[in-house]
Amino acid sequence: MASKDFYAVLGVPKTVSEKELKQAYRRLARRHHPDVNPGDKTAEQRFKEVTAAYEVLADPEKRKKYDRYGEHWDQAEQFARARASYGRTRTQGQPADMGAGLGFDDLLGGIFGRGGGRSRPRRGGDIEQPVEVTLEEAFSGATRTYQVQSEEPCTVCKGAGSIAGLACAGCQGTGSLARPRRIEVQIPPGVADGAKVRVAGEGQPGVAGGPKGDLFLLVKVRPHDRFERKMDDLYTDLPVELVTAMLGGEVQVATLKGNVALKIAAETQNGRTIRLAGLGMPKLGGPTQRGDLYARVKVVLPSGLTQEQRSLFEALKAAGEGSAP
C-alpha cells in the first residue's frame, strides 16, 4: 500500500469531505468484502487496499501528514528532524565535508532511499495468482485472462518522480502511473498440481524506471472422477464383463483423448493392470513425449440372471466340481 495513491484507491478527490470519504469507503468495502466474494483473491486484495487507505485518510492527523509527505507520511517525524538538523548545520556554518555540496534532498536520500530528490531504480515486486485447472486442461493446455498494471509516465512530474525536491504527489515519487490492462496467459500442456507458471515482466511496476516484477500462476489441478494421476502416468478402472474376462474380447478404454479399443486376453484376472503406452499426460516442456495409461481390470459380475443363465452357471459349477481331484 505504501506506493499507492490513497485518494485514487478510494476514487475520491483530495478535497473530499469526511462524510464523502466514509460513503466511498463503505461502498467499496461492501463490493470487495471477502464474504461477498468467497475465494476471489483479487477482491480480497482490493478490500485490503481500500481499508488501508481509509484508515489513513479517516484520521485527520494522518491525512495531514499524508497530504504533505505522500507515501512517506508515516516517517514525517524523521523527515522533520532531518530538515531541522540540516537547518542547524547551515546556520552554524559546518565545514564543507559535513555536506560536501549536498542539499537537503541529498540528506533525505538516507531516509527515503532518494538522492537529489529522485528514487533509485528498483525492481517491482512479484505477484502470485492462484489458478485452478481441470485435468483435461492440464492435458491439452489452457488460457487464462488477467488484469495487470501497465506503467505510463506521470503527467504531473513528467516522469521525474519529484517536484521542487519533494516526492511527486501524483505518482508518489515513482515517476510513473499504473494503468490496468488485460493479458492472456498460456498454461502449458503437462502442468502439474503445485506448479508455478512464470509470466515475465507482468508483476508490480518498478520504481523510478526499474524493471517490473513477474507474475506467477500457482497451479491447482482439480481431482478427476475417472483418472488418477501419478507424475506423467494416469490410472483408471476398466470395467470388463465376466464373459469377456473369461473368453477374451474387445473393450473400450476411456482416455483424455477419447476412447480406444483394447483386446482382453481370455481368462484375464480381476485386478490385473494393463499398460497402454503413450496415453498418459504430456511431459512438461516436451509435449510430444507422454506418460502411460494404466487400466485396472474390474470384472463386472452379472446380475438379474434368467433361469437359463442360472442353469448354465450351475452346469459350469458342476463341471468344475466333477473335474476336481
Q: What labels would you give this structure?
A:
single chain; 325 residues; alpha+beta; HSP40/DNAj peptide-binding domain; four-stranded mixed beta sheet; elongated
Question: Radius of gyration, rounded?
Answer: 34 Å
Structural class: alpha+beta
Proportion of beta-strand residues: 25-35%
Coarse shape: elongated
The assembly state of the depicted protein chains is single chain
Q: Report on the biggest sheet.
A: 4 strands, mixed
CATH architecture of the domain at 122-223: Sandwich
Distance between the termini: 85 Å
Low-confidence stretches: 94-117
Please provide the count of β strands: 17
Number of helices: 10
Mean pLDDT: 79
Walk across the major sheet and give the strand order. Answer: 10-11-17-14
The H-and-E topology, N to C, reads as HHHHHHHEEEHEEEEEEEEHEEEEEEH
CATH superfamily of the domain at 122-223: Urease metallochaperone UreE, N-terminal domain
CATH topology type of the domain at 122-223: HSP40/DNAj peptide-binding domain
Q: How much helical structure, as a percent, in the residues? A: 25-40%
In the CATH hierarchy, what is the class of the domain at 122-223?
A: Mainly Beta
